[in-house]
Design a protein that fits this description.
single chain; Glutathione S-transferase Yfyf (Class Pi), Chain A, domain 2; 2 domains; four-stranded mixed beta sheet; about 55% helix; binds glutathione
Length: about 230
């Protein structure tokens, strides 16, 4: 494949979903960290597209939206596509990730003040925008995201983000059942999407809690062992 660059935020679950797919396919890539305040690193997108990450650059082509990116990657090499009916299940899981799992994660990452501080520390490892911008991104960004998180929680009936996440993980555990992967014995887009989302919260206490689920942690290790991070 031509040169691949991922425009990302370090703590964006949709970006992690794309990283999981690239790494499961063994595609080398580099990342460009986008400043969430200015987004000035983002390439010019068609005017109807809202400036969001992830954006993937492949050669001279830009693809926005994690689902579109994964679809594009499957047209290049269909290693995460299954036979029916497993394919429909994999797609259902990917949709659930976009509509539910990834939506709850900001509340897990930024919902409580101490989590927002942890998020600022995680961002400190990756953001590199210069002294003043770094401070603004880490602390200002975390404060803004804390408000976003409160709104998400309110929309979902309030309560504790950790409990909402646990309820979603109950569904995933049921779908996984006794299988190696969500669609059966072979990896799929559904596995990439869920694995990416969970990688995004690896530095947060909610992740350790999820890993207490034996089937889920065995699945997580199985998928991790197939991810190859190759530098472009
Ligand atoms: N449907 C999009 C969602 C992407 C998305 O919401 N990205 C967030 C970061 S997690 C973003 O860029 N937000 C910036 C904004 O909305 O201005 C996808 O799957 O890629």
């Amino acid at each position: 494949m031509q040169d691949v660059t991922l425009y990302q935020f370090a703590l964006c679950p949709f970006c992690h979903k794309v990283k999981a797919a690239l790494e499961l396919k063994g595609i080398p890539y580099k990342t460009i960290e986008v400043n969430p305040m200015t987004k000035k690193e983002l390439p010019e997108l068609p005017s109807n597209e809202r400036a969001k990450v992830p954006v993937l650059k492949v050669g001279e082509k830009f693809i926005a939206d994690s689902t579109e990116i994964l679809k594009f990657l499957e047209t290049e090499d269909d290693s995460l596509t299954l036979e029916e009916p497993a394919q429909s299940k994999s797609m259902m899981v990917e949709e659930w990730v976009d509509d539910d799992l990834a939506q709850i994660l900001p509340a897990v990452i930024y919902g409580k003040a101490k989590d927002a501080i942890r998020a600022a520390q995680v961002l400190a490892k990756t953001s590199n925008f210069g002294l003043v911008q770094n401070a603004v991104v880490r602390f200002g960004g975390s404060l803004i995201m804390n408000r976003v998180a409160q709104k998400i929680l309110a929309r979902r009936g309030g309560g504790d983000a950790g409990l909402l996440l646990e309820a979603e993980m109950d569904k995933f555990e049921d779908w996984l059942g006794e299988q190696a992967f969500v669609g059966g014995e072979k990896l799929s887009v559904g596995d990439a999407a869920v694995h990416g989302c969970l990688t995004c919260i690896e530095d947060f206490p909610a992740f350790s809690k999820i890993m207490e689920r034996q089937k889920v942690s065995a699945w997580y290790e199985r998928v991790s062992s197939q991810r190859k991070r190759l530098e472009a």
